[in-house]
Design goal:
Structural class: alpha/beta
CATH topology of the largest domain: UDP-N-acetylmuramoyl-L-alanine:D-glutamate ligase
Number of helices: 18
Bound molecules: ligand NPW, potassium ion
Radius of gyration: 25 Å
Largest sheet: 11 strands, mixed
Distance between the termini: 30 Å
CATH architecture of the largest domain: 3-Layer(aba) Sandwich
Number of domains: 2
């Protein structure tokens, strides 16, 4: 099952539906126990709990209550616990009593040299950046102090993942029942996310917009069977680049060649350059001579003149799946009717600038709503590029993928992504699967190629085969979610 990321309203619905567990405080005790366990695990990594010191930053709501109960539990295990109350009159009364009873101390500021700090400033009830008092506490921490956020790093918006300034950067985030949207959308700020089971059920409304992500095991990369030949595995056609600027053509066609063992065709004035790099590509200068394909990739480096527009129109008039990228998106932004309401599978792959051209407005802080709105309005699938790639289908289902690094933010990387996704469309994957899986292997190839050093798109393309091999064989070994501090 894909992982589902909840909105704050969905979390509150789930908690309310638990009835007595909420009213009796059982949910909070379970949540706090989960936080204490996570902090203890961090302390146990280096010497254990006894005699160590932990700070707690306590806000005005139940997030602070979780933090106080957790710190009380740690204090009972021999940890010296220090709390700063940001709103003393509002600090969770029962949590504060438990904290004091366990020997915790309330101070005006946190002492230096703490082993860990628990961020209990705000959770799903927070809005906007850290207020000055909390910002001062976090700015004063020693760099080696481990920060464990309760539910969310404070200053990160729960539903959109908007990272306010200032806000907390956590090493570990402990959340309850189900991950929140921000855990994916602001993954680099959350560190390792631990989901604690507190006994609440899934509040899914069938028609609700959903944000999900696939695990490595759910990427079902097409593998040829005994009866397959070069045609049955999907023939992808690439319309990209030009004789003058052949790079996009070579990268997109090369990615398609690498991503499928079927056939890749190319149409355009860079046909000679493409074939000299990839002799297996069947290339033609004109669409009329192209031969049959099962899906088109159209746009990278193709230009936006009348000839390019006519070519795009012809391809979109077909009943084949089409991936629309780069220059083709610029053409579409002047003529949305080319794709809006198209009956055949259609995947648009804009970066933020192209997205703004398509819609006439910046993406804004709420990327999930922005991409889902466009997909619903035009009845197409939209892949919005970024560190966290989002792929929305017209029903409002959004698949997210955290690239785990930003090494793929390099010229030509988008052409590679288009070639991969196009080859998946050609084997009959839905536009959403094609986009989401392509983003995943693309990110993994970037990690394999980079290993900490800058890469160009050629290196990314060269690493595509080993990356796909890991997914196709179910042996993804590399941890992709390693946020830099
Ligand atoms: N429900 C449950 O059973 C369970 C809930 N659980 C826990 O409860 C958490 C939700 O608790 P919650 O609803 O009390 O809200 P919460 O996030 O603590 O903060 C709200 C208060 O903070 C304030 N504030 C707002 N923005 C701010 C800012 N930028 N900077 C500073 N302060 C700011 C604002 O007060 P104000 O100062 O504006 O009056 C507001 O009243 C949830 O995340 C989880 O940890 C778990 O125990 C599991 C069971
Ligand atoms: K928090």
């Amino acid at each position: 099952m894909p992982t589902r990321y909840l909105t704050a309203d969905e979390v509150r619905d789930a908690e309310r539906a638990s009835g007595d567990l909420l009213a009796s405080g059982t949910l909070m005790r379970r949540a706090a126990h989960g936080v204490a366990q996570a902090v203890a695990a961090e302390l146990n990594r280096a010497g254990g709990c006894y005699g160590r010191s932990v700070g707690v930053v306590v806000g005005a709501g139940d997030n602070g209550g979780d933090a106080l109960f957790a710190a009380a539990e740690l204090a009972r295990r021999g940890v010296a616990a220090h709390a700063v109350l940001l709103a003393p009159e509002k600090a969770h009364p029962a949590g504060l009593r438990a904290f004091r009873a366990a020997g915790g101390r309330v101070d005006d500021a946190l002492p230096g040299g703490l082993d860990a700090v628990i961020d209990g400033v705000v959770g799903i009830g927070g809005r906007g950046p850290l207020r000055p008092a909390a910002a001062t506490v976090f700015a004063g921490l020693d760099p080696e102090t481990v920060v464990v956020a309760v539910d969310l790093p404070s200053g990160i918006e729960a539903d959109t993942g908007e990272v306010h300034d200032p806000s907390v950067r956590a090493d570990v985030t402990v959340t309850f029942g189900f991950p929140r949207r921000a855990h994916l959308l602001a993954a680099p700020r959350c560190g390792r996310v631990v989901v604690v089971d507190i006994g609440v059920g899934d509040p899914l409304q069938p028609d609700a917009r959903q944000l999900i992500s696939y695990s490595d095991a759910e990427i079902d990369w097409p593998v040829p069977g005994p009866a397959d030949d070069k045609y049955t595995q999907g023939v992808v056609g690439v319309i990209a680049g030009s004789h003058r600027y052949p790079g996009a053509a070579i990268l997109a066609a090369g990615a398609a060649v690498t991503a499928t063992s079927g056939m890749t065709r190319y149409v355009g004035s860079a046909h000679a350059e493409v074939v000299s790099h990839f002799p297996e590509v069947v290339a033609a200068p004109d669409l009329a001579d192209a031969g049959r394909v099962q899906a088109w990739v159209v746009g990278p480096g193709m230009g936006t003149d009348a000839a390019a527009t006519a070519l795009l129109r012809t391809v979109l008039d077909s009943d084949l799946p089409v991936l629309v990228d780069a220059d083709a998106l610029t053409i579409v932004s002047n003529e949305p009717g080319l794709v809006a309401g198209r009956a055949a599978p259609t995947l648009l792959t804009p970066h933020a600038g192209e997205f703004a051209r398509l819609t006439g407005a910046e993406v804004g802080a709420d990327r999930v709503s922005a991409v889902a709105d466009l997909a619903a309005r035009w009845g197409v699938t939209v892949l919005l590029k970024g560190r966290i790639t989002l792929v929305a289908d017209p029903s409002g289902r959004v698949v997210g993928n955290d690239a785990g690094s930003s090494w793929a933010a390099t010229a030509g990387a988008g052409d590679v992504l288009a070639g991969i996704a196009g080859s998946l469309l050609a084997v009959g994957r839905s536009p959403q699967e094609a986009g989401a899986w392509a983003a995943r292997v693309h990110a993994h190839a970037a990690l394999l190629a980079s290993r900490g050093a800058p890469i160009g798109a050629s290196a990314l393309l060269a690493a595509l085969r080993p990356a796909i091999r890991e997914f196709a064989t179910g042996r993804t070994a590399t941890e992709t979610h390693t946020p830099p501090r």
